[in-house]
């Protein structure tokens, strides 16, 4: 589907939030991978996930780097007008973090057990922020707190804050901690106001991150354009992971004013898997932010979509169990992904489901979503 010389490129406006995991989308445009498939990606920096949702719905954006849980929430009509959506591919895995205030960490809340102990011994009103009510960070934050025996909705207050405002909110004492994508966890450490209590890969190893999302209507009317977008981002994802130099170059581009507009080192450290929790522990994370892994990252697994539905049900965002499998089959456009995978020589997995064991020892494989959603001792239904 390479562009024919002389033919105009199809312009696609793709929204993104200023987060490190938008890298494959940005580099697809910056390195010209898009033009190889007859399109021109115009990245559009957005200010909140609600703006991304609304602009996708109105058609102001053709597609977006977007929270997986947000896409599922719109598909199910949680807190908004229901609209059929399309997840074209996964953009990333891992690489988010739960950050607690330095003051809380100094009182012993350096990790989950420490936080649970602190909340028992010094009861008060604790506030933790996420980035969107149905999104990845809310669901991962709630899951992590519940795994420590903390009811996230009864023993704490949950607050929605745009990613770029997390560090300022922590510094101002408005919140005790937050779950968000990078570089904001690292920025909290660099500014001396936060400590990493858990990485998201500790909560759910190899969890899905952001997706390339659009509306079902756009996917139906612009199938060739969707395949071209997926193919361009697959090539960019492969390129990022081809060398350390490419990751370093990506960090430099992302730091620019058009994208994250922040210090390059705050981006580069965790993009390269180099972690410092801000309290004296340093390590190289084998499960850091990942963009491709021979296509293993990018396939839109049905079980990933279903997991977010189970957690939305668990926390009362859904009053009843949805048709988990049917909704996942509707929103995850495996057909379009397979077409782009063929264009780029990207491997496909043996199954549309995958299994994982999360921080609390619970295994998820998509086989019994209704039973899984009802099995947690801490829930709000």
From TrEMBL:
Which keywords fit this entry according to its UniProt record?
A: Cell inner membrane, Cell membrane, Membrane, Signal, Transport
Q: What's a single GO CC term here? A: endomembrane system
On the tree of life, the source organism's domain of life is: Bacteria
Keyword Kinase in record: no
Q: Which Pfam families match?
A: NMT1_2
Does the keyword Signal belong to this entry? yes
Subcellular locations according to the entry: Endomembrane system
This one is known as: Nitrate ABC transporter substrate-binding protein
